[in-house]
Write a structure and sequence with these properties.
heterodimer, A: 11 helices, about 75% helix, B: alpha/beta, Rossmann fold, 6-stranded mixed β-sheet, 4-stranded antiparallel β-sheet, disordered C terminus, ABC-type transporter activity (chain A), ABC2_TM_bact-type (chain A)
Chain lengths: ~250, ~250
């Protein structure tokens, strides 16, 4: 990995994003619109005894989930375009290292995820009165790690898609089970044993648990840091797998 | 080692199809070598083998004295893919500057490459909004930007108007005169006459490796298209064509 090449690649990906104003607008605005829906959905729902208000519980998980699903989609399409347009083949004939490219995507879309999560969190806290015992900064940190995880999974999955249609189909395959089993709909402890086992190997479960820790505790807990580490580790593992799918030589 | 490229007994299969079937040829330094052949003859595969992105079954490809694809060569070889491989959502200048940075070159080099391909006026335009010909010249600028010793160009003049095509060929020869080696593919035979040397391939086999004049002399016709037809017909029964490497 070379710092100048990594920086140039990150800058190039962000510049591409900047030229696509509609995508930027959607990235920034859509989570807030969806949070508005969630806010009014739960506006009249009473809080169960001893538990956070329903909006707080759902919105907190949503703040981590938006960057996850959006960055997964954006990255798998972007990387697929690199593969189909021939730019990837050309890049691999230059001094660019595979990790320069993969980390470039991780940093660029990770930053985009931070911006998205920050705007969404600002709306959640200030417009909709989200309350968490812990700091909002930790929520954004977890959202950022989630975004990087999504980028890494997107980079990896793009290797198995030949068309945009196929790439989009990986979204329900990779994202939906993680959302269903992350503990948002049914607490993980109340699921059947085999579902818990599946949930235990899905990284989003740990991101959601970390967010719930921030919601419930004023200070960052050991469990939260453990969970963040697991999500970051999963992101790193997915990046390594993605690197294995990038071959300089192909048939 | 005087040759820029030396290919020996190169065999490449793609899927179940044999695309290159024992190619052997050399490309001299500081000249424009044309790689001619019909669509599907294996030109792109041979070029991909030279730049080191093609998996090969057997044989060797030596580029600038090193095995093709060696990390060190990535600074010394420029490659233009057949489809314009530039970012449609970046401007021409941003594309050129990105590829310049990858080669460790300053932005000024990128701007010069953009001017060299006649896109100075469109430098600030998004590549996605360019015409097909402009887009492929943007891609060409990105291949030229590092001033590589060897430039591999896969059909660089497709879709260009005749004046621009002449300009581009003049530029290729200027580069060659300065010592750069160019390997340029085309399926248009009238471009063959513009090359210093010719490699003609058909169905994965090399059927000629010589200068345009020698090809004309060997076949007894002036028109290179006709000359190639004769070589192809002769190749069916008699494989002894000009300069084919054993």
């Amino acid at each position: 990995m070379k710092p100048t090449i990594l920086a140039a690649t990150t800058g190039r990906i962000l510049r591409q994003l900047r030229h696509d104003r509609r995508t930027v607008a959607l990235l920034v605005v859509v989570p807030t619109v969806l949070l508005t829906l969630v806010y009014y959905m739960y506006a009249d729902q009473p809080a169960p005894p001893g538990q956070p208000a329903p909006f707080d519980r759902v919105a907190l998980v949503m703040l981590g989930f938006f960057p996850f699903i959006i960055m997964f989609l954006v990255t798998s399409i972007a990387m697929l375009r690199e593969r189909t347009s021939g730019t990837l083949e050309r890049l691999l004939t230059t001094p660019l290292g595979k990790l320069d490219l993969l980390f470039g995507y991780g940093i660029a879309f990770g930053l985009a995820g931070v911006v998205q999560a920050t705007v969404a969190a600002a709306a959640a806290y200030w417009l909709f009165g989200l309350t968490t015992a812990g700091a909002a900064g930790l929520v954004i940190l977890i959202a950022a790690v989630n975004a990087v995880l999504a980028v890494a999974l997107g980079l990896f999955c793009s290797a198995f898609a030949r068309t945009e249609f196929q790439a989009v189909q990986f979204m329900p395959v990779v994202v939906a089970p993680q959302l269903l089993l992350c503990g948002l709909f049914v607490p993980r402890g109340q699921m059947a044993g085999w579902l818990q086992a599946v949930s235990d190997v899905l990284p989003l479960s740990y991101a959601v648990e970390a967010l719930q820790e921030v919601g419930a505790h004023a200070e960052p807990t050991g469990l939260m840091w453990r969970d963040v580490t697991i999500v970051a580790g999963a992101a790193l593992a997915a990046l390594v797998l993605a690197a294995a799918t990038l071959r300089r030589r192909s048939g | 080692m005087d040759d820029a490229i030396a290919v020996r007994d190169l065999v490449v299969d793609r899927g179940r199809r044999r695309v290159l079937d024992g190619i052997g040829c050399t490309v001299p330094r500081g000249a424009v070598t044309g790689l001619l052949g019909p669509s599907g003859s294996g030109k792109t595969t041979l070029m991909r083998a030279v730049v080191g992105v093609q998996t090969i079954n057997s044989g060797t490809v030596t580029v600038l004295g090193r095995p093709a694809g060696t990390a060190e060569l990535r600074h010394r070889v420029g490659y233009l893919t057949q489809a314009p491989s530039v970012y449609a959502d970046l401007t021409v200048r941003e594309n050129a500057r990105y590829f310049a940075t990858l080669q460790g070159r300053p932005a000024a080099d990128a701007d010069r490459a953009v001017t060299d391909v006649g896109l100075a006026a469109a430098a600030g335009q998004l590549v996605g909004t360019l015409s097909g010909g402009q887009r492929s010249r943007a891609s060409l600028a990105c291949a030229l930007v590092g001033e590589p010793e060897l430039i591999v160009l896969d059909e660089p003049t497709v879709g260009q108007d005749p004046v621009l095509r002449a300009d581009l060929w003049a530029r290729f020869h200027a580069l060659a005169a300065a010592g750069t080696t160019l390997l340029v593919s085309s399926h248009v035979m009238d471009e063959a006459a513009r090359c210093d040397r010719l490699l003609l391939i058909r169905q994965g086999r090399l059927i000629a490796d010589d200068t345009p004049d020698a090809v004309r002399a060997a076949t007894g016709v002036d028109d290179l298209e006709e000359a190639f037809l004769r070589l192809i017909r002769a190749g069916g029964t008699d494989p002894t064509t000009t300069g084919e490497t054993a």
